[in-house]
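Trying the structure run again after the queue cleared.
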Amino acid sequence: MRRKDKEITDKKTIEEILAGSEICRIAISDKEAPYIVPFNYGYRDNCLYFHSAPAGKKIDLLRLNNRVCFEIEYSHKIIRQELSCGWTSKYRSVIGYGTVDIIEDAGRIKDGLDIIMSHYGSEVNLYDEKNLSRMVLLQLRIDSISGKQSGDWELPRIAIVSSSVRTGRNSHRVALFFRHFLKERKLAIAEILDLQSYNFPLFEERLPYQESPSEAVLDFAGRIKSADGVIIVTPEYNGGYPASLKNAIDLLTEEWRRKPVAISTVSDGAFGGTQVITSLQFSLWKMKAWTVPAMFPVLNAHESFDAEGIPADKHSTEKRAAGFVQELLWSIEATGKVPR
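Done. Tokens:
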């Protein structure tokens, strides 16, 4: 690659592009010129999967030469400038080479379709046998791949507020999970603001009107203000959220203004703390925060996560977390365009 400054060398980032994009374009050899076809796809274990009719131009060409080139782009956006020559794009993309196998076995076709459907969020799939008999599965085994990016891809800063100060709390496990999840996937720079550690006194006055605010109050306010977004992890106590969280919300004013906030509710019961959503969202709305339209309820928290925040069902928990976090990241990007 000529522009080494734009090259993506981190394998995890390339995996995220493959796992998080929606369209793959394949270039197939057609003698004097390439023949390019866009596909929906699935990705697993260094292979891309597509479905196709069993006959047609692309199938004919692949039977003659199954060596292909493919391209996938992720999060493309035009960056506008005052001068036309200053316009540019923010994007991430991959280009790779591989070989395509045409699979006609019904069992393997179903397995491949499951991978494709899972890529778009469906886990329980039903297929019509007649339709299956009229298709083939294309498996592209990746031989080489390279990634490229342009634009500012600096990671956002996300503050995770662990709301419970109770002895033996379980909701803190969820805060630990999110910190690890964001860090491992390189989605954000994440830190936990633990209200148990801050141990704020009972609310007396908002920060701007305190004559001598404590160092802990100033620290908390500064971290909320500098964060690009916030995840609040709160338990449900007797149908409401804890006083420690209300105390912290009421303490600040401008720090909450237009701040993207995602809410994860936690309980040891079967409802996952969802009864606190309405009252908590209303409080944040009054503070002019931007609450994210996504939920992450956790039921039976003591069984769902261990003390280190490791989920019992890693696959399904991380899948739910990915959608929840993506809504927060979208809101962070959107509010970044709005003057505060």
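The mean pLDDT is 89. Worth checking whether this holds up in the mutant runs.
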